[in-house]
Design goal:
Shape: globular
Number of strands: 21
Largest sheet: 7 strands, antiparallel
Length: 594
């Protein structure tokens, strides 16, 4: 996708750095009159697309204000726009956008179905590229060594395809990380750090769907380089690296020694490096990325959601002084927030990219949902995100919930709080963000740590009230007493986070939660198995709510009890079994609500 010398040309590096920093400054400058930029985005999208099928149906030519926009266009999700998207994917022009789609991004979404997200050149240049370049500014500014050499970055999400799948009209239907933006959109500077590394284009043949083998081959090649940064975006991919190094260690060392890659000759044998690697394992018994790459400086990935429970400890495996920089709050459909400094979790709203509307996270989204403007948001509150942009997504509820952390230059700074999907067995309407905050509070209060967590709703064998059961992978073993006290604290924290949960518990509609402790590597087995089954690693994300009984059994190693109807519960990814301890009933912590 990129020429081998892309990241060795000094002039190219200078121009790249200037572009990244200048795009950040333009976004910062836009904060001075954010409302005006929002009006310009609206005027541009209706003006450009008034003659499209969708624009004619919704009277784009009569829209002048946000209030006009709200009256003319309903709040909608992918399902509502899918008929229009399928027409565009089949090759029909002027359906959603006057600018024809160049590619269609794929996104697994909540359901696992492969969406087709239309991507036009105008969208890329006005909405995508400004935030995309700016996202790298904190990394490039504070860790310039990551672009000093092509092999200084291990970019886990980079996954080029020689023959990408296509829509009926012949347009590529691929992940954003599989598109050459220089070729498709005339942006030669858009290649990410790490995309010209020796492992970016694998030197040996491998099937496109053999995702685990591709991950192995990249790690095998990367252990011979002085990697300074790991880019994952999806934190589950970053968490898999220490596990995979140990899983594949013997094979890696042998191939380094022999000069092979995937069993085929590739480069010179390197017995000296192989001996170094052998000594690392002999010294500690387990291999950490910090041992393999002692000069690692930064990780780049999402830092919130379920990952907030395990990232603080995970980063130690990459090095005691490693900095974790947050990836943008964004989806395949478009950007929401981008970190313009080294904040640990939040990014400023990209006011030049889309028209942004928000709704309280506790609200049920519908076509007529009342929405808020960015200036109406309150710090410390959770909101559904609804955005509209020139690429053809109009009043689109992306399915993410964000939390407003603060304001910078008058513009809200937001962090990803979780999916909008509800777990609603008996009217408790629990959201990802509420459960994650409750887990964090219950863990912190007892000084406990986990490597990952999931939950589902089960009904007891005696047909009593259903209850939430949590599967946790402790970082270190817990005693029975610690587990009982944690479970009581968790129950109380859930009541404080959610009025619906509190009402369900106090009315007896929900029984007390239970906890099942899994092996430390249970969720890593889960992740590895899913990738082995053919799902791209970028799409295998942490999932908190897991109502599918077969997938729950694969994760925990035990058959779940029958679950009540949970129409909003989130499906899980498949996972292999892992040996659990027995569920432990809760005990109320002193001072907890009853």
């Amino acid at each position: 996708m990129n020429s081998p010398d892309t990241w060795t040309d000094p002039d190219r590096l200078r121009r790249y750095r200037e572009r990244v920093l200048s795009e950040r400054e333009r976004l910062r400058a836009a904060h001075a009159d954010a409302a005006a930029h929002q009006r310009r985005v609206l005027a541009d999208l209706v003006g450009c697309n008034a003659s499209t099928a969708y624009g004619k149906e919704h009277g784009f030519d009569r829209i002048r204000t946000l209030d006009d926009w709200r009256k003319a266009v309903p709040v909608q999700d992918y399902r509502a726009l899918a008929p229009y998207i399928e027409r565009a994917a089949a090759g029909e022009p002027d359906v959603l956008s006057a600018d024809p789609p160049v590619v269609f991004f794929t996104s697994s979404g909540t359901t696992g179905a492969h969406k087709k997200i239309p991507v036009t050149a105008r969208f890329m240049h006005t909405t995508f590229f400004p935030f995309y370049y700016a996202a790298w500014a904190p990394l490039i500014e504070h860790f310039p060594e990551v672009i000093a050499r092509p092999d200084a970055v291990l970019n886990l999400k980079h996954d080029p395809l020689a023959a990408p799948p296509t829509t009926a009209s012949g347009r590529p239907h691929v992940g954003a990380s599989q598109v050459d933006f220089g070729e498709k959109f005339g942006e030669p500077l858009s290649a990410e750090p790490g995309t010209s590394a020796p492992w970016a284009t694998l030197p040996v043949p491998v099937e496109p769907g053999a995702h685990l083998e591709k991950m192995y081959l990249r790690l095998r090649l990367a252990v011979e380089s002085d990697v300074r940064c790991v880019i994952g975006i999806n934190p589950a991919m970053v968490a898999a690296v220490p596990y995979q190094l140990n899983l594949w260690w013997s094979r890696i060392v042998k191939e380094v020694h022999d000069g092979t890659v995937g069993g085929l000759p590739s480069g010179a044998p390197n017995p000296h490096r192989a001996a170094e690697l052998e000594r690392l394992a002999a010294r500690s018994g387990a291999v950490r990325p910090a041992d393999v790459w002692p000069h690692l400086k930064a990780l780049f990935c999402w830092t919130t959601g379920v990952a907030s429970l395990y990232l603080p400890r995970l980063k130690e495996e990459f090095g005691a002084g490693v900095t974790v920089l947050p990836a943008p709050v964004a989806a395949s459909e478009g950007p929401v927030g981008v970190a313009l400094d080294r904040h640990r979790s939040a990014g400023s709203l990209v006011v030049t990219a889309s028209v942004y509307e928000f709704a309280d996270a506790g609200a049920e989204l519908g076509p007529d949902t009342e929405t808020l403007r960015p200036e109406e948001l309150e710090t410390g509150r959770d909101y559904h995100v609804v955005f509209s942009h020139v690429g053809g997504l109009y009043r689109y509820a992306v399915g993410d919930v964000v939390r407003v952390t603060d304001r910078v230059d008058g513009v809200p700074r937001v962090e990803y709080a979780g999916r909008a999907t509800l777990s609603d067995a008996v009217g408790e309407r629990l959201r990802d963000a509420q459960v994650i905050r409750a887990l964090a509070a219950a863990l912190d209060a007892g000084g406990l740590e986990v490597r990952n967590a999931a939950c589902r709703v089960e009904r007891s064998a005696g047909a009593g009230a259903p209850a939430y059961t949590f599967a946790l992978a402790p970082r270190t073993p817990w005693t029975d007493d610690e587990t009982r006290r944690f479970t009581g604290r968790l129950d109380g924290a859930l009541e404080r986070e959610s009025a619906g949960y509190r009402d369900a518990r106090r009315s007896g509609r929900l029984a007390a939660p239970t906890v099942t402790l899994l092996s430390a590597e249970a969720f890593l087995h889960d992740w590895q198995s899913t990738v082995a089954a053919g799902v791209r690693p970028t799409q295998v994300k942490d999932r908190l709510f897991r109502q599918d009984p077969e997938q729950w059994q694969r994760l925990t190693g035990r058959a779940p009890g029958p679950a009540p109807a949970a129409p909003h519960a989130q499906p899980a990814q498949p996972a292999p079994p892992a040996p659990p301890a027995q569920p432990v009933p809760p005990v109320q912590e002193e001072g907890s609500p009853s």
